[in-house]
Amino acid sequence: MKKIVFVDIPMKKMDTAAYGQCYAETGNADCRYTGKVVFPINAVLAEKLQKGDQVKAVLLTTITGKDHSIENAELFQQELNSINAAIGAHIEYEQLATDFVESKANHEVRLRKMLPLMEEGAELYADITFGQKTIPMVLMCAFHFAEKFFDADVKKIIYGKVEFIKHADGIAYPENPELYDITPLYYLNNLMGTMEAPNGTEALKALDAFFAL
Questions:
Q1: What is the mean pLDDT of residues 107-122?
Q2: How would you classify residue 21: left for phi > 0, otherwise alpha for psi between -120 and 50, otherwise beta?
Q3: Which of 66, 92, 94, 136 reaches 20 to 30 Å from 213, CA-CA?
Q4: Domain map of the chain by residue range?
């Protein structure tokens, strides 16, 4: 089964010593991987990947000339390759670079670059922990397109939460990691798009009935 993983790469310089976290049994993601990772999706992939899997990792980087997204993309590859060494999946990496511009035109550029990377019947994963705030919305559009026209299956959309706590040296370090599977929000959005009701009051009743299931 082909797995396609979209990862929003941060612009801030990252390193394993400072930012590596163990997300085992935190949040709602039901992840038991006990290794430390900078990129939360890698804790999930450590459990989901199997020998012989075909994996395409799409690294969403930013073009500004001042950021560290290229270095961080390399760090992601090193981290996943290290995990995969004991698994044996076949991983290919693609960098999808776009400008750090929140214009309608640039959102369309991102989306149109994502869509050709979809494949028939693929399993889709995403890590939206880092990066620009608009990327998750663009990914939601891309995943919906892939579900509808490529018969893709959205498996996991992951968000890793940490608290930055200042220590005696004046530096704030990431602590208290929690890993969240927010895929249900994606499917809830799809549900909203297919609901039918004569008015808002009836729609709210239908939604309440759904949540009561």
A1: 97
A2: beta
A3: 136
A4: 2-181
Is the CB of residue 181 less than 8 Å from the CB of residue 30? yes
Tens digit of each residue's pLDDT (9 = 90 or more) over 26-78: 999 999 999 999 999 999 999 999 999 999 999 999 987 677 999 999 999 99
Topology of domain 2-181 in CATH is Rossmann fold (3.40.50)
166 backbone φψ class: left, alpha, beta (φ>0; ψ -120 to 50):
beta
Other residues' Cβ atoms within 10 Å of the Cβ of residue 54? 14
Neighbour order of strands in the sheet with 54-63:
90-99, 54-63, 2-8, 123-127, 153-166, 172-181
Task: Give the tokens for residue 10.
Answer: 């941060």
Hey, which bits of the chain come out as E strands?
Answer: 2-8, 54-63, 90-99, 123-127, 153-166, 172-181
Polymer length of the chain: 213
